[in-house]
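Hmm, how's this folded?
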Amino acid sequence: MNKKTEQKIAFAIFRLLGLLVAGVLFWILGFIIYNGISVISWDFLTAAPAEGMTAGGIFPAIAGTLCLVAGSVTLAFPIGVMSAVYMNEYAGGSWVVRFIRVMTNNLGSIPSIVFGLFGMTLFVNTLGFGDSILAGSCTLGLLVLPLIIRTTEESLKAIPSSFRTGSLALGASKLQTIRKVVLPMAFPNIVTGLILSIGRVSGETAPILFTVAAYFLPKLPDSLFSQVMALPYHLYVIATSGTDIEASRPIAYGTALVLIAIVLSMNLLAATLRKLK
């Protein structure tokens, strides 16, 4: 077998595997859309749950999910980006960077339910936040912090050092070089880390179960110390418990479809911002 034949076989296998992954994705999306599209309506998106969550809508869960996404990203994104800037631009290859990188990797491998227990102990009980948006956002922020740090660090490493040298040679300070040259060039890949963190926060159930999620709360939050419903936990509740699981099953598929749509919308928004830069 010659090299061209081997190459064609290898490319065919890679193409087949790629199509298989895409097929699985479309299969899952098609299954959710097929089972959930029948319950999607304006009332479903804007009304509160009713009749033991077998009727009504999911608007409080949508609002709660958006609050948690906004809160966790607001906390984690600046800290993660600044940590990565320090590690890549200031600390160099010191033992501090190696230590932080090891701890970041370890933090990223911890199961999410452990974050939930930690968040309940620290934010809910010790700091006195109670079951609240603030406690949930802090817990989810810690959950996605390693992801933001690593993606930002890799984005900064991809910027050639010649750009930094040229900026410094023109009289710019190190901080000016980072702000005006390095970060703008790395921004598209940094946004990728933000997209991944939003997707993970949107779908997490275990951390919010201990820190913020309410079983049934058909009203909107009025402060950072309010409990909220959230789409992942609401989906779990109506799919596994309640007085009439079969009656609520279409609502579960509809909730899953809305959750996927929200994540996709956030990804498209972030991708648009990425292109604008």
